Amino acid sequence: MPLTEIDRLKQTVSEAWDSPIADQVAARWGYPAGTAKWWRSSASHVFVLPDRGRRRYLRFVPGSYRGPKFVAVVAELMTRLSDGGSTVVRPVAAESGALTMTVATGLGAMHAMVVEPAPGAEVDVSDLTESRAWQWGEALARLHRDAAGLDAGLPESFGELADIGERFADDAELVEATARLADVMSELPRCQDRWGVVHGDFELDNMAWEEGGPIAYDFDEAALSWYAADIAYAVRDLTDHTGRPATGHRARFDAFLDGYRSVRPFDDEDLGRLQLFAGLHAAASLVRITRALGEPARQEPDWLSELRNDLTDMARTHRQLVIDIGQEVGRGIR
Fold first, then answer.
1. Cα angle value 48/61/285 (rounded, 5°)
2. Predicted pLDDT of residue 330
């Protein structure tokens, strides 16, 4: 989401972490003013909703950033996956019975949904055992399997690559490297065992763990893509900057793939494409970051300036990764 949109919302958040904008949206689910408490803003604005001793999550995006169709498609996807037994959080219907709502607020139209919490504990890479890595891979494979055919209305991944040439017209090295990666991508098969509905961000930060394994949430990046691309993005904590298994994480990386293969096929050809997808993800992320950065205001709060600096550094890292992997495209990455 653009930093300007995050700042506009943040300016409405009180010291008690509530916001009149969130109040207007939460009212469609029957929550009184002051109930919703700001948690974070990135791809969506997220507020916590206390609910009979537990929490639900209110998620909404400005209409200027994303249309209502995508939010509705994602809510339907999550509901159908949950109905089918997949371990994903479930959307909560508004008082009208709709899973998503478009609400007129003091900051313009907001497209919103509410989701149930994911029970369990968060796990970071330092707590990731080989057993949990296996469960993680198995869970992603089950999601890929169960989401087959539930693709109506989802965009295709890597659409951002089309903006590289114009957005970075003065960076010939980046444009050329992206073109190499895109050329290889255009030749990849889209058969049903390699292409379908993906979560888009199945990393450790977007799931909670119980004994039986992880429960997924945050479907903001759901799309149609190659399953190997979803794996490449999910396991970034286990790989180095080129997408290869990082020193010290090889056993967990292999356990993840073993768990995945217990449900769905993933052959050596798929494995060989993980580095390619790391480069493609870096290019797509670079576009998203530069869109979010926009033009800085004359005076910005300190937190926004710090975030802008962090994202600028991240953009530089992504640019170099695109170039590095682009240079290896002719060396057997297919």
1. 105
2. 57
- State the Cα–Cα distance between residues 328 and 313, nearest whole angstrom: 24
Asked if 175 and 306 sit in the same domain, the reply is yes
Per-residue model confidence as pLDDT tens digits over 155-173: 999 999 999 999 999 999 9
Do 217 and 176 sit in the same domain of this protein? yes
Sign of the C-alpha dihedral computed for residues 249, 89, 25 and 60 taken in this order: positive
Residue 145 domain boundaries: 125-326
What's the CA gap between 311 and 328, in Å, rounded?
Answer: 26
Please tell me the distance from the alpha carbon of residue 147 to that of residue 78, in angstroms, as a whole number: 9
Same domain, 255 and 144: yes
CA 116 to chain centre: 18
Low-confidence ranges of the chain (pLDDT < 70): 330-334
Same domain, 262 and 313: yes
Domain boundary among 115, 149, 167: 115
Which strand (E) or helix (H) includes residue 250?
Answer: helix 250-261
> In the prediction, which pLDDT does 332 show?
56
- Which ranges of 30-67 does DSSP label H, i.e. alpha helix? none
The answer on 242 and 200 residing in a single domain is yes
